[in-house]
Amino acid sequence: MGHKQEQAVREFLDAWGDETRRPDVEKIVSMFAPDGYWELYVPHGPVIRGRESLRREIQRQLGYTEWARCGIERMWSDERSVVTERLDHFGRNGRTVRHALMAVFDLDDQTLITAWREYFDLHDLSRQTGTDPARLCGLEQPVEA
Fold first, then answer.
1. CA–CA separation, 93 vs 101, rounded Å?
2. CA 48 to CA 95: how far, in whole Å?
3. Cα–Cα 20 to 30 A to 122, which of 51, 83, 129, 137?
4. Is the pLDDT of residue 38 over 70?
5. What pLDDT is attached to residue 82?
6. CA distance 105 to 117
7. What was the pLDDT predicted at 52?
8. What's the CA gap between 109 and 112, in Å, rounded?
9. 95 contact partners, CB below 8 Å, separation of at least 6
10. Lowest mean pLDDT among 11-20, 43-52, 62-71
11. Are strands 32-39 and 113-119 parallel, antiparallel or unpaired?
12. Which residues lie below 8 Å from residue 130, measured CB to CB, with a gap of 6+?
């Protein structure tokens, strides 16, 4: 298990804030490696690479949300990667929106994020990566499609 990596991801997700505090954009951006990237969850979604581009994308998203909270449901890790199953919430137009997703974080030796890839669900993660989700996530039983 990558406890150090899991703690870094928990800290990263916490920096996105909650109903009472806005995302700490500078902290979020600083937790990426200089050439780190974020691949958005839409199929073959855009890849946002480099800290300045990441900053712009986060600020763009904050233009239509009032707040965001990342909720970790389950987490699996090794020494380089962390997989999260999440139920995130965000405020938009005075309403709370729920968003379930899977995310894979790759981290370097300093626990900076080198890649953050989002997927709709475990099956989407499996389809997009070509990896058996049970093996990737350390599950005992394969997930049925």
1. 22
2. 27
3. 51
4. yes
5. 92
6. 7
7. 97
8. 7
9. none
10. 43-52
11. parallel
12. none
